[in-house]
Amino acid sequence: MAIELLCRKIGMTRVFSESGECIPVTVLEAGPNTVVQKKTPEKDGYSALQLGFGERRRVTLQKPRLGHYEKAGVAPKRYLKECRVSEQELDQFDVGAEIKADLFEAGQKVDAIGTSKGRGNAGVIKRFHFKIKRKTHGTHEGARRPGSIGAGAYPGKVIKGKPMYGQLGNAKVTTRNLEVVQVDTDKNLLLVRGGVPGHNNALVRLRPASAPKS
Asked: How far apart are CA 41 and CA 197, in angstroms?
């Protein structure tokens, strides 16, 4: 378990290493994140930090949510997310404390969690990279169709999970083991090697890299 820092994806650019290597990077505005609430095992049954990020006008909030921020003594936030932490990490932060980009360091491996760009409904060629059929010898209008989707006898139905036409994108995506190239503590910016899920200005959660489940 580790803190998942809420970040805003600014966009992509490139930087040059000392050896002259051109490195494509994604620029993330990494906070500051404000601790709005602490969840404890005694009261809530688990330990977690509730983090707020971004500014939001008071008039856009309903009274229960506004009272939640007033109780913590922090300004209203645009995003509010929880992240599970250990009890030792929980004791390191108080309500109202700020967590900034210096939580990470250059050379560290991180995981980026975001929502991919929505591409609308798409066929199997674009969605699953099926091969296009020949457009001759009786193919007619079926060049971009998936072909057979099941047997006619047994089991006599379409198997669950069969790649077919449907929604492309707009799904939770985790990109693992990205390298932090630079950390700008003055501007709270993180430069991460490679691409990160989501469009510009999208919310991205950044955490120390964890091994994938086996």
From this structure: 33
The Cα–Cα gap between 7 and 99 comes to 11
Find residue 192's DSSP bridge partners.
Answer: 26, 180
| 92 plus 129 within the same structural domain | no
Task: Please name the residue that has the structure tokens 């030792």.
Answer: 88
Domain match, 144 and 190 both: no
Residue-range definition of the domain harbouring residue 2: 1-31+105-117+176-214
107-124 pLDDT tens trace? 999 999 999 999 999 999
3-state secondary structure of 192: strand
Residues 83 and 43 in one domain: yes
Task: Give the tokens for residue 100.
Answer: 């900034």
Cα separations (Å) of 192 from 24, 56, 76, 104, 214? 8, 27, 28, 11, 26
Same domain, 26 and 43: no
- Same domain for 134 and 202, yes or no, is no
Give the tokens for residue 33: 């994140």
Q: What is the pLDDT of residue 196?
A: 95
For 42-87, the pLDDT digits (tens) are 999 999 999 999 999 999 999 999 999 999 999 999 999 999 999 8
Amino acid occupying residue 39: K
Query: Looking at residue 191, which CATH number applies to its domain?
Result: 2.40.30.10
How far apart are alpha carbons 150 and 130 in whole angstroms? 16
Question: Are residues 158 and 87 both part of a single domain?
Answer: no
How many CB atoms sit inside 10 A of residue 202's CB?
A: 15
